[in-house]
Amino acid sequence: MTDVSLKQVAEWVRGELVGESGSVPTGVSLDNRTLEAGELFFAIQGEQTDGHRFVNAAFEAGASAAIVQKGWIADNTANGPLIGVDAPDLALGDLARAYRKRFGIPVVGITGSNGKTTTKDMTAAVLGTRYSVLKTPGNQNTRLGVPMTILELEPSHEVAVIEMGISEHHGLTYLCEVADPTIGVITNIGPTHLEFLGSVEGVAAAKGELLEYLDESSMAILNFDDLLLPKERAKGRLLGFGIEEDCQFRGEGFVLDREGCGHFSLQSQSFDLRIPGRHNAYNALAAAAVGATLDVPLSDAAQALQDFELTRWRSQIAEKDGVRVFNDAYNANPASMKAALLAAKEIDVPGRRIAVLGDMLELGPGSEEAHFELGRHVQLCGINELVAVGEFADNMAAGAVEAGLPVTHVHAYPDREPVISLLKETMKEGDLVLVKGSRGIALEKVVEALVF
What are the chain's domains? Predict the structure, then answer.
């Protein structure tokens, strides 16, 4: 955040400034422990803690001011300027919304059930061949993370790539109002956050809020192979990407090599990916489509995607003692689980395919059935050994056995600790071990124990 006075901040967040108003904040922070001198501190109240407890600690760290609830000011003293608001979390969005208006640059908003972060990173890599790009760091795609990213905009940025994740209806509308995307990308629709969105149709409706926000001057880029995407809700220009259906950015002649990496031709330009999985070819096609929309030559996009490396814990393959570990432990839902299993199936291995799968969280009342169906899918994808981990491990195991996987090749554990011992005792040279589960299961610990 640059060249914004405290007085201007107070006006944008509709707050009351108490104390000295001459400083110019250098940025924003939600955590006094990582706050840098000159930043604004937002006292956010969360489920575990209340940021108001750390206001003075933030000032000791060099905060230029603190954004707090109005009622807090009457009963507390602080060592620096305060801006009183009704809700600091909403004030953060108000600040980012107003700040965004200073930048007349393209903003790419990316959402979907799976592949958001990889598509965001691929898109930034493609656009980075021509522009100065701001992108969402990591997966900071929430109602706090998106405003924080927008407030990182500087005059040198020529385009921004913003990942948008939601778990409730109208959440995407809020993120759009903050980021004001001019180009919208929806990667796919699948059963994710069903605990809050109710059904796959509910997911489609929630993700479709991006299309409702985009006006006639905007561009929507959608996966045309995904029949659940509400293409009819697009108001402006509509571009499609895919492999099966006819569309402007179709990956012609798509094949997977022995390592499961995709190769295809797009408008006569060859694309050769070095990361495994058919799903990553879709992510690459989306990135190439965004690049073409902003005048990046397909030849430059192809080179950027060939050089692209995935972020940690996403479709990464490490090898030790002849055993390959397919680390996709970052997160999981039914669609991404199936994509990872299919990717493992498509990798040529001389030994066994072992799947270490953790719980898929936030699926609500349908969790047991979803994990049972995942177990069935394990057998259909040619997995030789299943190691299920978590509360729903028995459901996964039952599904795999019913689908035909021998019971002696199925293991279920409530937590990950026994898994490491089992794998170290049974893995053999030539085996491929897929590791995937929701963040709460932390299966990356299994990967670390196997390859480091």
Answer: 6-95 (3.40.1390.10), 103-306 (3.40.1190.10), 316-451 (3.90.190.20)
